Amino acid sequence: MTAQESQRSGWARLPVSLRAVITGLVIALIPANVWPPLLLSLGVPLATVIELVFLGLYVWWVSGGGPPGRTRAARSVAFRRRALSPAQWFWGVIAAVSFAATVHAAIVLLFRFVPFPIEAFRHGYNFSFIPSLPLKWIAVVVSATSAGICEETGFRGYMQQPIEQRHGAPIAILVSSFFFMLLHLTKAWAMVGMVPIVLGAGVLLGLLAWCSGSLIPGMIGHVVMDIGLFGYWWTGIAGDFSARPISETGVDRPFLITCAVLATTLIIVLLAARRLRRIRVSTAVAV
Known about the structure:
This protein is mainly α. It has one domain (15-51, 95-282). The chain is built from 13 helices and no strands.
């Protein structure tokens, strides 16, 4: 047996879940960290062009394109590569937008209970070196797109999908959400109140991937969510959060409106996910 064959055999002997976690982290984290050094060293216009080309090649490869030929089928399955019907696109977009609104409403509510730690949230997200507002927004959109595509591919694709096949969707969603949470709670903005929000976001994204059988709804939702996170909470180019905690203002109208928005958008996400699951099951039965 050659050294390469021995190495492959050793990898194959690892439990499926462990292999999925390792592969998912590599697929998510390494590509997602290509954009920051490009932005810092090349500036927005050139870095954007290179990053978009890179993301195109990345999606092509992780969805089953390119070498090695022996892994093409496995990569396609891990990416959940499938065509979506018009109905799936409709409900997927509704779920995606509602998901993003749910996360932002939850963050607003958090900071109506505790003061918004603006310095912690802005740490590491300084776009002051970018000379104009339009270029800053381009950087925000590319940052969100890079994170949304790479993280959904890694966590909800390469990590969650193999565990789904071996242990079922509930365990797979919890595992991918747990590691998704661990990754994000290493940031400067990590605080106790953000734990249920980040974990909940991971669970909803995992649910969308499982219900739809595709990464596309989750990618759309993740990108929309991150545009808001980068543009508002992390860089402040869209404005600053100035609402005071209800311990100072009392339960006011904006607080009640935010509660209603959170409940409504969460219900819409769950209903849309349920609809996506029904469409997927009915399509499978018809085939």
